[in-house]
């Protein structure tokens, strides 16, 4: 394989005279990031050790790791964590696979290509409020899905009350997540596919490789950075699922479909228990971070990615 | 490092830094109200926006506030509309930053919660005429402002739930009038069996949903001091009342909307479509049906009576003044103004029911169905005025749902709920 | 290239035709699934309030009206909110893409002390639930005098998008051929020149992607705007649209109409920037 597109063997010889340069490139971004994200995050972390009083100037009581202990003993928290986990496991791979499939179909220039790109991107830009409302109607007891499966195709004996039980309600939420997220993955892959040099594909063609072999041997490795990026982002996004759950089931029936963020939101902004809410947020953040670093580590073994 | 590089980096850095600096200089516009006696601006947050229907906001901004400002020279009221679903979050973050408005139109469930946090001024201490003003309002509405012996607000508008019945469903059951008692209701249920029409529908098992049943059945949720639920919530009367509902649920006369099925037809659609025979709901439904189901003629009647009579639950909003307001006197003037006939009647015309029984007749002339609500309000009770009210709601619905689903007995469910609520009441 | 051409043509025409047909069938079927909700939203926005959200769903309004659009456009200060949203989103997108591409360039092109740590800190930024930051960010905004100002929104929107963009762009910038970079360096080009003249142009598809995403996120952002903005004159579109949702009733036709007007700039940005997704940009540069 032509090394031209491989990750750069970063110039080690340059090190002595480039000492300040990378830091200057990082400075403005990192400064804003530290002030606006990291500093508040540390504050939220601090909150998690208090029975935190929201009022400005109020004295909060230090309770050590009590909020964390409480979370580990709280069955509702574990249920919400397992729901988030299920959502993540069920949505990440379909989004990537379907997104890549569409991107491959749409990478070539043709008169209809921009139109298709927009159509597939529409779910991404349509607001969560609207799509959640619509899914709720589609999967209502007397909705279009039941009508199609039961009355029209006769695949079922009776209507399924999709949103009345945890299992079926999670299916609806996962379908919504995949449907809305496919366009996003497609975009990343479209951008990545532009970077696959035609010369490589042509070379493989000359070698007599079939389309699938060419795809596996040339295209997939070349878009590996995008795959790594997507898998990390979608795992993070999957465990942080929130809006769709709030809007479709509201965590119901009776908290059965609560996910970590909806449970956390209820604790913080409905019960005003910010200490506990923060502890839940910290647990989730640590979990997600560890997963992300692991993913990057694993992929680095194959490529030369930075983790 | 070369010059062009430095310039490039400098530009980017400068852009980043200027963001912070621009913010520093760009603020401090709202603090026009200095120490002088010159114009006071009161900020008032609420959600009169009402889903894009601007009549309430227009009444406030175009009629009422100008009238108040005219009568009180030197005071300007700036109303800020915030989406209902977001108001609690906005209030919370603003309280954390110490940047609250002077006045808030608060959902009555939030008042004890914010009072506990020290966000609100105790009006029963700071307003000399508080007792007089409160005496003119429905006692159930006033009670929502109570926290630890002090009152933190005054009722602004009120509502309650009454029984709403579909004529078409009555016809199907062969019944002439809406059920007046629990017994009537059960009898009607027997006649509706097999018609495909559900007897009664509701969208949950929280305090708002379940209290009218419990109170009308002769039971209670807590003792009068609101310090204990055990012995009250799990009383034999309540077991009997809830068992009646559970039996109806098992006979499929109450749909699983009540146990949290978000896919079931909502009450506002199910009633006019004759999918449901009866529901409990508030005075806002008339406006919704008027637009969506113009042909539908709902029948309004009191909550079916049980051993305890016909007793419903108080809803609505209170007006509160924040403890941090630097214009307490002016804010209290506006609070008094909200209790005036002018304010109450103008808002009643936009669908916000008056909090004063004395104005009920005048209100009934605006719309006849109001009188059913104002009659119901005379005996309606408020939910437990506890900072943990929303947690109590969660306890009620998570405990009762398994009883409806047949996973536990009603008495076990109520025992469990009562002990959890005991803890919540003690905690506050 | 010329040697290849005959081989490519040697593929049986019928098979190629069938493949194209298959491609279009799949694409169209998929597009229908993707577009249906949006079509429903369009249909509902032209439906009279009384007939909104009936079951079964109506895709052709039974009582068509443009009333929702005239109400949305006429109500409150729609034009002002639109302008506010545009100012905030355009500035924050431009700044975010600039700053994050600079960071991505540093990560992709240099080895330096603290590289891994800094990158991990950025990554951590993605893992913190944004909702939990609202209160600390509000207090920070108060202390920096950024409350109730568009500048404050820009500040937090830039900060909030840096992690994702840096992470995205880093991968793409790393795959820009090293030979070119080294060649430019030999010619005496500074790091800034290599970033500005070489890396950025070659990473156009990725920059376009980052722009599209950042614009969309800024344009739709709600929680921070809700938290920071008090004065209606500084409202953005999502705040205005949320106010159409009521406690007991929502005029969905109005919400959908307003959302559709709001989505137009997002589509325009998408159409403009997706044109940079052209295969061969990088490859061409290698040959050149």
From TrEMBL, chain A:
Membrane topology: Multi-pass membrane protein
Domain ABC transmembrane type-1: start-end pairs: 81-295
Superkingdom, natural source: Bacteria
CC terms in the record's Gene Ontology section: plasma membrane
Entry's localization field: Cell membrane
Pfam families: BPD_transp_1 (PF00528)
Membrane-spanning parts: 20-42, 85-106, 118-140, 160-179, 222-243, 274-294
PROSITE patterns xrefs: ABC_TM1
Keyword annotations from UniProtKB, A to Z: Cell membrane, Membrane, Transmembrane, Transmembrane helix, Transport
CDD domains named among the record's database cross-references: TM_PBP2 (cd06261)
Alphabetical list of Gene3D superfamilies matching this protein: MetI-like
GO biological process: transmembrane transport
Family, similarity comment: Belongs to the binding-protein-dependent transport system permease family.
The protein's name in its UniProt record: Sugar ABC transporter permease
Taxonomic source organism: Galbitalea soli
TrEMBL record, chain B:
Pfam families: SBP_bac_1
PANTHER family linked: MALTOSE-BINDING PERIPLASMIC PROTEIN (PTHR30061), MALTOSE_MALTODEXTRIN-BINDING PERIPLASMIC PROTEIN (PTHR30061:SF50)
Gene Ontology BP annotations: maltodextrin transmembrane transport; maltose transport
Segment forming the signal sequence: 1-22
Key words, A-Z: Signal, Transport
Protein family membership: Belongs to the bacterial solute-binding protein 1 family.
Name of the protein in its database record: Extracellular solute-binding protein
Keyword Membrane: no
Domain of life per record: Bacteria
GO cellular component, one term: ATP-binding cassette (ABC) transporter complex, substrate-binding subunit-containing
Organism: Galbitalea soli
MF terms (GO), sorted A to Z: maltose binding
Ranges that cross the membrane: none
Keyword Kinase (UniProt): no
Automatic annotation (TrEMBL), chain C:
Alphabetical list of Gene3D superfamilies matching this protein: MetI-like
Record InterPro entries: MetI-like, MetI-like_sf
Principal localisation: membrane
Domain of life of the organism encoding this protein: Bacteria
CDD domains, per database record: TM_PBP2
Chain ranges of the ABC transmembrane type-1 domain: 82-273
This protein's UniProt keywords: Cell membrane, Membrane, Transmembrane, Transmembrane helix, Transport
Protein name (database record): Carbohydrate ABC transporter permease
